[in-house]
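Hi all, a correction to my earlier message: I attached the wrong file for Amidase domain-containing protein. Here's the right sequence:
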Amino acid sequence: MSVLFTSISAGNTVSTEDVRSTFAKLNVSVPESEEDDYQKLLAAIHDCADTVAALPDFHASTDLERFPRKNVQRPTLDENVLGHAWAHTFSIKDKQPSGLLTGKTVCLKDCICVAGVPQLLGTDIIDPWIPEADATVVRWALEAGVEIVGTAHCENWCQSTSSFSSAQGIVHNPYAEGYSAGGSTSGAAALVAGGLVDIGIGADQGGSIRVPASLCGCVGLKPTHGLVPYTGIASNDPIDDHAGPLARTVVEVAECLDAISGYDGIDDRSLGAPKHATTSFAADLKSIDSAKGMRVGILTEAFEIALLDKDVKSVVLSAANKFKALGATVEEVSIPMHPMGNAIWTIQQRISGYLALQGQQTGRHGYGLTGLETAKLPWTQEKFDKCFPTTKNIFLNGKYLIDSFPALYPKAQNLCRQLRLAYEKAFEKYDVLITPTTPFVAPKHGALTTPIATIAPTVGLTSNTVQFDATGQPAMTIPIGFLPAKEDDKVKLPVGMQIIGGMWQDGKVLRAGHAWQSAFDWKA
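and the right structure:
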């Protein structure tokens, strides 16, 4: 209060009417006799805000001399691939590349900041905004020797598991035009699975890496929460925010994870992560390339969800049991709380996601994307009208829940911890757990009609993925085979198997996935 007291005056920056109207928004008031005092206090904080607002912003440094941006362009529809998989194409690489990923090409989900490259976020709610600094994962990937060749299309505001929600256009599944590539990391999954880039870096709050990787037929890892710093990535929900790699092989995913993991001194999500460049995920795979002695648990409740296609169930169970041939023990394990994870995550995510949309999330150390917040706020009817139904639903759900169930968010947080402990109890016996990644193969694209009809094709896709965003445990999907499309049995689409590990046990997840992938040809 000392700063405020030194600046309290009868200033005219705010009025007593501002005091009344501000308190009225909180559904409270103060006695008229106290309004002058509160006017002075409000004027003081206004002056303090003016002072801070006038200061130059502080951005992480970006070495444009070492990593120049070349040929930045937004491709036309004729120049694009797989529908609209690219957001922007360009070339960024070290002038003298060296490191674990030298020679690899990388694309980035278009919510990951690249200094000087307009970010679309899959929306026309706001005009493209231009980040001032690279995300940490961008800098670390470049230092590892990659060439970043573009930003990949993502779904509208990163809030859909479809691949037709973006204002910029549709992304097609690389195995069948007209079918979903999943979301919201739609473009990166399609580009990786289609063989157009080696590695994608995406973001996952409810399945946004694993769902598109599963539908497109590539490997996608959501690491332990905080293992990869989220600095410079647009946030939907800090509790659920995960960044991670997609590739065609588990080894490439492990190599990328070595490059982009660790605490960066900025993002407090990563306070528990190891020091950057000290992990050995890829080397460990090469020294122990089998599953011999591993204990694999088939999570019973994950195979009992209502929307699970019987053929997907059969293919995933068959793939899980193949671990026996690799020297692992395979058993069924029941975790009765697993189905409740959907409801727990939904409550936590709707409230936190709503606050993020409103610019009201606080309490974290990190790098603030002030340019994005300035472009986004305030919300207007015109902006709201352009939202995809999933985003409008987050507004509706979040506001309703906050007003109607005031204690529900902290309770959801408590239940997230209980859910994590339930899985961790299973990990005392098992190295990894197995579930289907998605309950069905890629559906056909939906159409923007009524809200429910628009969302309907993707309902249930995250039935087995959201739990591990809520708990923070690592989860990876690997492709294990093909099944016919629901609409056309001549169209063959990938099936994904999800491998989950205990907190900070990403190495076990990678080991199991690599062993399976090394022994079996999923395309056969």
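Sorry for the mix-up. The mean pLDDT is 96.
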